[in-house]
Amino acid sequence: MILQCSIIFVYIITFLKSLSKYKVFFLDILLIASAALLYAFRNVMEADTIVYYTVYESFTNSFETVPTSFYGIDMGFILFMKLFATLGIPFEIFRLIVFLLSCTLIISTVKIITKNYALVFCLYLYFPFCYDSDQIRQFFAYSIVIFGLRYLFEDKRSVLKYLICIFVSSMIHITSVVFLIYLLALLPIQKYMKPLFKGLALICIFIVFGGGNLIGFVSRFISNSKLSLYSFESTEYRMNIYLQIFEIIFFVLFVYLDNKILKNYEEDNNLRILNCILNLSIVFLPFILISLSFERLMRPFIILTYCVATIRYMDSSRKNKGLPIFIIVMLVIIRMTVSFSYILDLFNDCVLL
């Protein structure tokens, strides 16, 4: 109980500090360490984690045959697990390394966008940290994608570096290839955004009233076993429809806030590209109406939106500079309540607490 209260206290103090002009680097490190503890020592009986634990233990015990094809884990992550497992490193320490490495990759890019990375990290810890602590492979993969975005902020000669990041990330989780769409941010496509928004809105309406079985239609042309995991049949679409519609509203409001804030910084080339990246992310929204599993594709978008809100908060020349942060916090609280997911679950699941 004392440790739990200490972690909550550190979080509150760090959050309040990040809203002030004071910089206390020690508090940032302490909060990251606390998050690492919750991440690494979470109960392995969670849905996704138990799969990775089973495969990891198979490597640890030197089993000749590991049923990796059954679990559908991409080869890059298999090799990454095998490297640590064969060294006799416990699964909890492996997760700790994944978290620290992923956080380093993400924070290094966040620092390019905003100096107040602590505020971004505090927002992240409430959402979607609780999901990333279970979906460790997805977290590792998209952290590489976020790291690669720095190369889109540079000149076009850095596109190759971004492609390398996408390739490495796709070896961890194949869905990372969809983030190739962010390359379009380097093109003058802003004038096409409004038609894109309208077209996606029509697609969403079609999916809702059409039953949502778009993947069933796509699978007629593309045979892919992973595709079927996200299919209509596996998600009980009708039972999730209200949550899925709420997810769409949730992300649309985020997009609105991003555009509202970043229009004041159009002279900054980095932020102009960032705004385009955020707008391009909405192409993933119709897929959320097919399956909530596709919400994972929006994780980089969420962290980048936190960066945008932080930019506004740090700009002392703007009125109501804290309003975007307040709106985002309220939206996240509502979203977590609607989906019956709470940060306190991490305390209940942590084997050390």
Q: Explain this structure to me?
A:
This protein is mainly alpha-helical. 66% of the residues lie in helices and 0% in strands. It has 19 helices and no strands. It has helices spanning 2-18, 25-40, 49-60, 68-71, 75-85, 91-113, 117-126, 129-132, 136-148, 159-172, 193-210, 214-218, 225-229, 237-262, 269-280, 285-288, 299-314, 323-338, 344-349. The longest helix has 26 residues, at 237-262. The N and C termini lie close together (7 Å). Residues 219-224 and 231-239 have low confidence and may be disordered.
Provide a short characterization of the protein structure:
By secondary structure, the chain is an all-alpha fold. The protein is built from 19 helices and no strands.
Summary tags:
353 residues; mainly alpha; 19 helices; 66% helix
Secondary structure elements and their pairing?
Blueprint: H1 2-18, H2 25-40, H3 49-60, H4 68-71, H5 75-85, H6 91-113, H7 117-126, H8 129-132, H9 136-148, H10 159-172, H11 193-210, H12 214-218, H13 225-229, H14 237-262, H15 269-280, H16 285-288, H17 299-314, H18 323-338, H19 344-349
Helix pairs in contact: 1-2, 2-6, 3-5, 5-10, 6-9, 7-17, 9-10, 14-15, 14-17, 14-18, 17-18
Give the number of DSSP strands. 0
Q: For the report, how would you describe the main beta sheet?
A: none
Strand percentage lies at under 5%
Uncertain segments are 219-224, 231-239
Taken in chain order, the helices and strands follow as: HHHHHHHHHHHHHHHHHHH
Helix count, DSSP H or I runs of 4 or more residues: 19
Distance between the termini: 7 Å
Rg measurement, Å: 20 Å
Averaged pLDDT, please? Answer: 82
Number of domains: 1
Helix share, percent: 55-70%
Q: Pairing-aware structural class of the strands and helices?
A: mainly alpha
Shape: globular
